[in-house]
Every structure is written in C-alpha cells, then in structure tokens.
Amino acid sequence: MARESTCRFAILGMLCREPMSGYDLRSAIERSVGHFWQESYGNLYPTLERMAEERLVELEPEERSPGGRVRKVYRVTAAGRTALAEWLRRPVLPHVERNELLLKLFFGARVGPADSLAQVERSRAEAEALLAALRLIDEDVRHSRKDDPEFAYWYLSIRAGLLGLEAHLRWCDEAREALERLKPATGSTKKRGAR
Amino acid sequence: MARESTCRFAILGMLCREPMSGYDLRSAIERSVGHFWQESYGNLYPTLERMAEERLVELEPEERSPGGRVRKVYRVTAAGRTALAEWLRRPVLPHVERNELLLKLFFGARVGPADSLAQVERSRAEAEALLAALRLIDEDVRHSRKDDPEFAYWYLSIRAGLLGLEAHLRWCDEAREALERLKPATGSTKKRGAR
DNA sequence: CACCGGATATATCAGCCTGATATATCCGGA
DNA sequence: TCCGGATATATCAGGCTGATATATCCGGTG
C-alpha cells in the first residue's frame, strides 16, 4: 500500500545534524550523499510541507533577513527523530535498479557494434570522471573528518562508490573487447551493412 | 521538457523479436532483462495505448481465443523500428541511482552498529542469492544460445550483473568488518548473539 | 459433473519523484 | 547603477510503482 516517501527520511537525517531551509537541504544532500542520493526542489518543498503538518519537522521562529526576505528554516521534532530511527532499522526492500545502458546494449544488435561501443566508451569516460572526483572526496574526508564519530558510517558509502565504479570500469574494458571482436573484419571500414 | 518514457523502447525492442500482448511483454522482459529492467502493468498498458495512437505499434488483426476472450497482440511498425534504432544510438544521460541501503548506513550512527550490520547482512544474503541465480542463467545462455547472433549483446548484461554483484559482496565484507570494529569492544556480550 | 485455484489478461488509481519553468530577492563587482 | 550569479520558494506535466479490481481459461480433484 502507501509507498513511503524516502525523501522524508533523507530530510530527517539531514535536519538531525542542523536546522535548514529546503534550499540548504538540497545542497547539504548533494554535498554529502550526492554520489548515491539526490533530491529535487519539486520533491523537497511539498514534502517539507507535509512533514510539518505531520509534526515530523517544524519551522524555526520567523528568522528573516533584514530586508524581510522569506526563508523557512526547518528543525526536526522528537517525533521526527523517532520516525527516522524506526526507518533506519527497517529492512531495505529489494528493488531492481533500471539500467538504461544495459537495455540499449541488450538490443544493440539492431544497430551494430559501433554504436554499442560508443555507448560503452561514453559510460567509461563518465565513470572515470566520477571515480576521480570520489577519490578526491575520499582523500579529503580521510584527513579532515577522520576523528568525527560518524566517520566510519560515511566512509562506507565512499567505499561502496569506489568499489562499484572500479567494477564498472573493468566491465567496460571487457565489453569494449567483446564489441570490438564483433566489428566486421578490421582494415577496410567501409562495408555498408545494408539490412 | 518532455521526459521520454523509456518504457516505450523496452516495448519496441521486445516487439521487434515477436508480436506480443501486454501480459506477454511483462514476462518476456522479466525473463530476458529482469535483472536490470522491469516493467509494471500499470506502466505497460497505458504506454501501449499511447504508442498505438502514435503508430509505433499496431494491433494484430483480432486474434481471439475460441471463447471470445480478449487478447490484444501488438506488433511493431516501421516507424517503431526507426524510433528504436534512433534511441539505441542516442547517448544515455547520466543519472545518479538512489541507493537506500547507503542512505540508511550514512545515518547509521543514529541507531548504532548492530542495526547497520543487520542491513549489510541482509543485503549480502540478497546479493548472494541473485548471484547464484545469475550464474545459472549464465550457464544456460552460454550453452543454449551461444550460436545466436545476439549472444554477444546479451552476454554483456550478464557480465555486468556478475561483476557488479561480486563487487557488492566484497563491499559487504569490508563493511561488516568496519561495523564490527565499532561494536562496544566487550567480549562480555556473549559469543553467539541471540537473533 | 461441479468446484477450485492458479495462470492468463486488461485496466485504473494514488502517490512518489524528476526535470522544467516561473518568480523574486540579495549582494558583490564593474 | 546595473548586472549576473547565488539564494530561495513554488508549481506542474508526465513517468513510473505497487496496489487493487475484474474477468476468463483450464487442468485437477472430489
């Protein structure tokens, strides 16, 4: 029945560290868990409103900037903390992640190895860039936060990212090789494969 | 702007192999690409209707079972084949996959290492089961389909699954170790934890 | 024969979520 | 003073999931 908005819990987790506005939430989430979790404004703002109705969060007493600019800073309530803890203990339900790259490759015979190869190369380049970025974050966190009591928990997600990306790169290399073997005999690349 | 229903292309790809009903499509997809792509009826039926309006697919001439039972068998049109080929060549746009397990672990300090450990163990068991299943499929496909011209393309997705799951298992082991180190060092809390 | 249960088959809906769009203010630098 | 980029909130169409409803077919059991 009622699918449960996971967004709620991302918000609760972040608000437990520090009260924030919807805008702040988005960047805090991006900065800390951005490599495996993101939230859009279109999701955050309505969700925050609902959560306020449900008393999981509440607005901090009107804190306006001098000019009178609107800024809604939310804070987590006791009920919010309870709900978060309850969710953290609940098992993750298994879910098949859609993988558009694999789907395109699966039907790849309809367009030929060159196009599939291009998809793999693009994916590889992207993964390489993500890996480089994550390694920088890794370095940074290992130095600046290694004494934070939450360090071990944060580190788990970085390791997951690193291992996952490395595995993906290995797969890309394998796939590239396999697809290259499919290409029509090397040398003269002109053969127009009329169907 | 118009996000493009990926479901359309999963349907087109499958219908290119053989005309099918919505019901058949669901099981064909489940059987062949189920480990990285699934479609729900709630998505398939309305999508098929729209695609028929757009002339990407068409109904086969009334094919009813003797009792007059309704059964709508769709077939891909020339326009459908073109649309599929065009999509297959278009680059996959990068997208951060949400990972609920990692999110729960990231906030794990709020409930403690035992609960996080349980999440990891569950995920590990699940991955182990998926891996075993995929190895069977691997065996099967390598024997029964190795001469199919599309074999190489199908095989890519199996290898992606195998490498991904193996990497995940390695991460689980790492995570388990890290979380076990966080547990209150006591040897006092009995050896075999009561589950 | 009647009945049952599981597979076949289609359809609809609430609700989550994304990506796009709109709007307005703040503030530092040219 | 004006510009542009960051800050900030809000709304919407449309994709998609998981649940629910409904009905038929068919083989096996009593």
UniProtKB/TrEMBL annotation, chains A, B:
Pfam families the UniProt entry points to: PadR, Vir_act_alpha_C
Source domain of life: Bacteria
Domain (Transcription regulator PadR N-terminal): residue spans on this chain: 11-86
InterPro entries in the cross-refs: Tscrpt_reg_PadR_C, Tscrpt_reg_PadR_N, WH-like_DNA-bd_sf, WH_DNA-bd_sf
Residue ranges of the TM segments: none
Domain named Transcription regulator PadR C-terminal: residues: 98-180
Protein name: PadR family transcriptional regulator
Organism: Corallococcus interemptor
